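Bump. Still looking for R13L1/DRL21-like LRR repeat region domain-containing protein structure tokens.
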Amino acid sequence: DELKCLNNLKGGLELVLRSDFEYGWADDKLRSYVTGAASLQGKGKLVSLEIYLGHRQSKEKSKIVLEGLQPHSNLRQLKIRGYKGERLPSWMMSWGRLPYNSLPNLVEITLSGFQNCRYLSSFGRLPHLKVFTIFNMEQLEYVENTSTAAGSLSHPSLSHPLATASPPNPLFPSLEYLALELMPKLKGWRKMMCTSSTSSSSSEEESQVLQSCCYYSAFPRLKELVFSAVGLEFVPEEFRDLPALESLCLDFCSQLTEVPEWIDTLTSLKKLEIESCYTLKSLPKQMANLSNLDYLEILDCPILKERCEKPTGEDWRLIQHVPRVRIGRNEYQASSSPTTTLCL
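Sorry for the wait, here they are.
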């Protein structure tokens, strides 16, 4: 209740909600209490907000509580930990829709410890978002889940009959850093479901077009992309053709089966780190086209390590142009013998 009248709060605020405070409360009473007691929508001078939800809250109560904690639209940094609901509250679901957007000024988002979400929301219409981190979500399968009726594509391949005349403004127009970490069930970025009254084969074809085209223009300023300890078998197609990407990290992705063949569409890539991806068996031939790649690191990838060793490895020819290469304990520089690193 102390927060209710403090509408001139400036800077940052951290809210730690006890796990037992909602027991015995009816849903309507709980919703009214949280909204009134926190009164976050009246605190327009807050720059950052961190919300930690108690670990023993039920799914239903957790959603009601977070629904009542909608911040003022001026907020720039948001961190949420420990959410137990299966779906995000309505004020977060609005972030992917135009013209309404509840938090248009967000620059940084961190979401962690969401225990029951299989999907999150669309975040692509946050115009100023620069840093986006999602980690420690055991059930998450896709960041976005979208149902789209056939013929309602927003920016498809113009060669397909479902295409529209021109693409809209890019999604994630300002995003520079994206990290997806500790999500063992992650299958991809977006799950696209096409709803249509046509035949199943036609619906399947349209769904594939939707999937391949839904990010025709996205992440134009993304510089650093991190996948760490996620369940991906492939790097999602949404991350091809990124003109600004300089750093890509594939870390502890034990189910990852390949480095994508479209890796050479990342024309600005300078740094590629691959660590503890045990099922990776080779590099694609397109690696040789990465003319701006300055540093390549391959650690704890047994099969890949053998194929990339200088000078006899089958894939060495694909990476010999890279000025600095580290494979296991051996570090190679252009036109030099390997340097062995000893850990004493």
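Confidence is low (pLDDT under 50) at residues 148-166, 195-213, 340-344.

Edit: fixed formatting.
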